[in-house]
Amino acid sequence: MPTTPAASPDTGPDPLDRVDLDTRQPAVADLTRTAAVAAADLARTVAQAAGELLAAPAPVRLGDVVPAPELVTPDPAADFTLPEDAVIRVAADPAARDVAEQLADLLRPATGYPLPVADTTAAQPNHPLVLTVSAAAQQGSESWQETAPGGAEIVQDLAPSGVDVVGAALGEEGYRLDVIGTGVRITAGTAAGLFHGVQTLRQLLPAAVESATPVAERWVVPGGTIVDRPRFAYRGAMLDVARHFFGVEDVLRVIDHLARYKLNHLHLHLTDDQGWRIAVDAWPKLTEVGGTTEVGDGPGGWYTKDDYRRIVRYAARRHVTVVPEIDLPGHTNAALVAYPELAPGKVAPPPYTGTEVGFSYVDPADERTYDFVADVLREVAALTPGPWLHIGGDEAFKVPADTYRAFIERAQDLVAATGKTAVGWHQLAPAAHADGRVLQWWGTNGDDPATAEAVRRGARLILSPAKHAYLDMKYAPDTPIGHDWAGLIDVRTAYDWDPGAHLADVPAEAVLGVEAPLWTESVTSLTEIEFMLFPRLPAVAELGWSPRATHDWDGFRARLAGHGSRWRAAGIAYHRAPEVPWPAGPTVPAPRSSQPQRGRSGPQSRS
Ligand code: TNX
């Protein structure tokens, strides 16, 4: 007997309408009806969830980028979902091709997609380098021509009224990123610009993109356009590999951290009292003897020339320039242990593994010292493709002022003889100007007449104010490692200053950029390096890159918060600073203080 189920008043059209129960017995029919209702409910729920998922906005907003981009024009209707068959197309230029290969390498592990890299024919005349990521079926240039023509005109169209960017050049490092429904295009005048655009694209994908293994995720990029370029040409971080030695692999990972945040210089503090870390053929004992100590009782270590070349090559591929520092005339105890002839009394001092400063110096009265300086600078310069040679110059407390000045002037000449440009800590200021020289200001009081005077004589500045940019300072009194002689540096303190206006009587045009130094008296491992860098390194990076008009603590910490899950996915240690609204998630254990703090709590002079 045919059974016609009644419509349920509660649930609308009865789902059993579609079920043929003709042949069933009544008891079985009841059971089946119950099961079918449940199944239909489940199906409705699943369909609704799937619909929500399909229509869900991108998990990241177009402006959620660190450092903040110059111009952001979202278009929520133009979100792009990376398909499994996506192809990365790139102009036929070897440097651009290399950036495309790096993008593919970044995206493949988490997506599990093949992401082949292929040549494009769609290079725009104004912007020779074009990199597109799109669905395989949509590679042609036509869709871009219709939707997002390249060139200066569109830059003008995107500008908020009143901003004159007519013909605005993307410059040496700028890029433009267009996300339309069918793909992503990054355009730049240089491979460095493309590389920075790739870092932005990386941040626009869900945080799981940082995973080293495939993740089931919708790889949505928020729609719209970003036009971006840096405020300052020099944006750096310093790693002290002398107080504690860090091997090549650790340094490469630090370079990756710089590159993520568009920093373009890695300053390596290669020599100090506690160790000499770079091989010099003419003076082999510098490393063989001077490289075997470090703070505490660790074994030290040093880079062979091939190690150093590897670091330089790895950095160059990521558009990071290595700035080698040979600290002179002070901070030289390790060199004096290796070569007593360089010591003022010609007697080898004992090796030093403590944390005091200011006691050692090479003999400024002996010509042999200048042979040493010339040989070292020549060999290091020959290994270094970048334009800079850093000669230190800090805390030579035992060298009288006149002698110090004369020594620095000779050292500056020896740098010039290698074809490089001298950089030094701001104590170099009283020495005569040398063409192009750059002073790195690390003071704690922004009223520094000697530095301002050196700027009037032609010096440019890298700003590393110790109260804001010294990443070896503790975050808070209970931070297990670090110093506090310049103060505590929480994330807001690292962020809230203006490199263009920090020093009295120094115009913004004299500022080449910013650098965040990490001294390593108390830092002994990669985890501890990362704990001190994150999240303050991105704060300093934003000061170096982003236009001042974007500066906004609340906006910054909200953007920064999203990076916690990225660092977790990438296995990067970081400090869960309480002033940043991190999303919920497992906390990262803080490093234990692994090194008893010896001796000093800070430098003797803070000028
Ligand atoms: C000062 S800053 C130093 C370094 C120490 C650092 C510790 C500068 C040029 N010299 O020798 O490592 O303080 O915070």
Write a structural description:
The structure is a single chain. With 607 residues, this protein is an alpha/beta fold. The protein has 18 helices and 19 strands. Strands 10-11-14-15-16-17-18-19 form an eight-stranded parallel barrel, surrounded by seven helices. Helix 6 runs parallel beside helix 8 and helix 10 packs across helix 11. It starts with 25 loop residues before the first helix and ends in a 37-residue tail after the last helix. Residues 1-26, 123-128, 137-167 and 594-607 have low confidence and may be disordered. Ligand TNX is lined by residues 357, 394-395, 425, 442, 470, 472, 483, 519, 521, 603.
Per DSSP, what share of the residues sits in E-state strands of 2 or more residues?
A: 5-15%
Percentage of residues assigned to helices: 25-40%
- Overall pLDDT, averaged? 86
| Side-by-side strand order of the widest sheet | 10-11-14-15-16-17-18-19
What molecules are bound to this protein? ligand TNX
Largest sheet: 8 strands, parallel, barrel
Radius of gyration (CA) equals 29 Å
* End-to-end CA span: 100 Å
Shape: elongated
